[in-house]
Amino acid sequence: xxxxxxxxxxxxxxxxxxxxxxxxxxxxxxxxxxxxxxxxxxxxxxxxxxxxxxxxxxxxxxxxxxxxxxxxxxxxxxxxxxxxxxxxxxxxxxxxxxxxxxxxxxxxxxxxxxxxxxxxxxxxxxxxxxxxxxxxxxxxxxxxxxxxxxxxxxxxxxxxxxxxxxxxxxxxxxxxxxxxxxxxxxxxxxxxxxxxxxxxxxxxxxxxxxxxxxxxxxxxxxxxxxxxxxxxxxxxxxxxxxxxxxxxxxxxxxxxxxxxxxxxxxxxxxxxxxxxxxxxxxxxxxxxxxxxxxxx
Length: 296
Description:
It is a single chain. By secondary structure, the chain is mainly alpha-helical. A hairpin with a 2-residue loop joins strand 2 (166-171) and strand 3. It has 13 helices and 3 strands. The protein folds into 2 domains: 3-88, DNA polymerase, domain 1; 115-291, Intergrase catalytic core (hpI Integrase, Chain A), CATH 1.10.443. It starts with a helix and ends with a helix.
């Protein structure tokens, strides 16, 4: 069976059986496509012909290419899932990835922006054209609510209650309501009232944020957008859409918000995930102490 046919079956399995999120599906399929390309380029056959030794060789290749432990661990998880499904489909007899062991990923504290860096970033979109109004609203909403980029681009117009200053976020069959600060409400109001109707391809389009073609904004489109404004702001930190989510949580904690409230707004199912921001704040305080105390 050709690799493309195997990938198609795997995609159907992830969609219909595993009910995988869009992010998980995209990552798993990308990992297996990269494995397929490696096999072809090294004349090692197709996906179904890969042996235990070949997959170990591939993992070693990823390490030598400088891939992080977290990336390699995800690739191993993708291979185990893929070949497990191939076994269940009776396309191979055993899972060649079953013996692969991922090294423990380095525990890194999330990178956050300072308050000044956030202000600098939010100042970059210029409200002189439709794109500027839209970008301003997107960045303000992201920092105001701490939602994930996948949740941001999934927002529909009816998820916003401007008069109440609240946004409804739906994810994994759950929904939560998050307050929006006044500056974000103003940016959203201007975008919705004056700009959005001129940008949408069809009046029935439900998406809150749309691209230049009038269709729902993509993850890749927003990624490029935020990188552009990082460069314009002259911020040296490597900013991703998740950086604003981390900054939202850490800044709330710094200013007295309790972890349970932050957990609720972020949509974390386990508070231990939220507790990492306590470590971030403590780490920052230590840096301030070391720099400022005369005897430090």
